Amino acid sequence: MPITIAVANQKGGCGKTTTCVNLAAGLAAAGYRVLLVDADPQGSALRWRNNSEESRLPFEVIALPSPHLHRELPRIVGNSSYEVVLIDCPPGGGNSGGSDAITQAAILAAGAVVVPVQPTPMDYQASEVILPLLRNAAMVKPDLQIFVLTSRKQSNNNLMRESRQAAAEFFQVEGLAIRHLETEIFNRIAYAESVGVGKSVLEHAPGSKAATEIATLTKELIECLSAKTAA
C-alpha cells in the first residue's frame, strides 16, 4: 500500500491546496509515483489541474469528497502502482458537519497528516478545531504522524520569528505527538501564478525561492517518513 498523507486544517485560506499540489509535484520530481485525491467538495485541486488545456501536473488527480474516503480509498489504490497518495482536505469546523466528516475520514486513511498554519495567534486558535479529529484518529492509529507546517508566511521580522515558538507551545497536546517542520512556506507571487497556468511552482518558476521551499519541504518530509519506517 502507498504512503498516504492528508493535508488538513479546517481553517480556510491557510494554504492546504497550495501545499498539497506542490508537495505532490515535489514527490513526483523525487521519483515517486503520486496520486492526489481532491477531497474538497469545491474541487480546488481539480480546478488547478484544469487551468491548462492539457494537464501539466506530473501526477494524477481524482475527486473523492466522501465521508467514507477511508474505506473507499484502499479499494482504489490497493492494486495500483502509486507509492504516495496525498489528500487535499476541505475547510470546515463550526457547523460544517459534512466537511468535518470528510476530513476525519481522510485523517483515518492517512499514515501522516500535514497541518498548514499561517503564523498568527488568530490562525493558531482557528486551527484548534482540528485537534479533536486528530485525537480521534490517533486513538485508532497510534502511529499516526502529525506535522505542523508554517504556511503563507509574510516576512522574517521579530513577530514572525516569535510565532514559531508560539506555535510549538500551542500544538503541544496531551496524547498527540505533533512535530513542527523546519521548512517554512512564504506568501510568494509564484504560488498564485502557478495556479493560473495549471502547473506546480516547480514547473512554473524553477530556480525561484518558492520552488526551493517546495524542494526543501519535500526532502524534509521524505526524511521524516523514512526515519519512521526505518524505526
Structural account:
With 231 residues, this protein is an alpha/beta fold. It is built from ten helices and seven strands. It has helices spanning 16-29, 44-49, 69-77, 97-109, 121-126, 131-140, 158-170, 189-196, 201-204, 209-230, and strands spanning 3-7, 34-38, 60-63, 84-88, 112-117, 145-153, 178-186. It has a seven-stranded parallel β-sheet with strand order 3-2-4-1-5-6-7, sandwiched between helices. β2, α2 (44-49) and β3 (60-63) form a beta-alpha-beta unit. It is globular.
Share of helical residues:
40-55%
Q: What's the alpha carbon Rg, rounded to whole Å? A: 16 Å
Tell me the strand percentage band: 15-25%
Q: How would you describe the shape? A: globular
How far is the first residue's CA from the last residue's CA? 18 Å
Strand segment tally? 7
Low-confidence stretches: none
Order of strands, main sheet, comes to: 3-2-4-1-5-6-7
Key words describing this protein structure:
231 residues, alpha/beta, seven-stranded parallel beta sheet, 10 helices, 7 strands, 45% helix, globular
Produce a short descriptive summary.
The protein has 231 residues and is an alpha/beta fold. The protein is 45% helix and 19% strand.
